[in-house]
Write a structure and sequence with these properties.
This protein is mainly beta. The protein is 0% helix and 51% strand. The protein is globular.
């Protein structure tokens, strides 16, 4: 099982980023997938989740209305579109397979 995140970077407040998580080594279309984030010294926080077919999604209150999770099962990839970014969104973002596998994370920094 391998999960590889990409798409992080430095963005100004109000800007957008799209994170990608490329999955391999398992039947991607069979698994619920999630995005978490973690600020140094704090617990990892669930941001969003998506069912195996993409038909059902979940968002933390902090993400509602600004972030969109999606997936392309043909490409074995899950995405997190983040709009209207705020400084408090600064964190390392992790892709997660619901039964406990994690990617290495991608840093998102929101700063002017």
């Amino acid at each position: 099982v391998q999960l590889v995140e990409s798409g992080g970077g430095l963005v100004q407040p109000g800007g957008s980023l799209r994170l990608s998580c490329a999955a391999s080594g398992f039947t991607f279309s069979s698994y619920y997938m999630r995005w978490y984030r973690q600020v140094s010294g704090k617990e990892r926080e669930l941001v969003a989740g998506i069912s195996s077919t993409g038909g059902s999604t979940y968002y933390a209150d902090s993400a509602k209305g600004r972030f969109t999770i999606s997936r392309d099962n043909a490409k074995n990839t899950v995405y997190l579109q983040m709009n209207s970014l705020r400084s408090e969104d600064t964190a390392v973002y992790y892709c997660n397979r619901v039964d406990g596998f994690w990617g290495q994370g991608t840093q998102v920094t929101v700063s002017s």
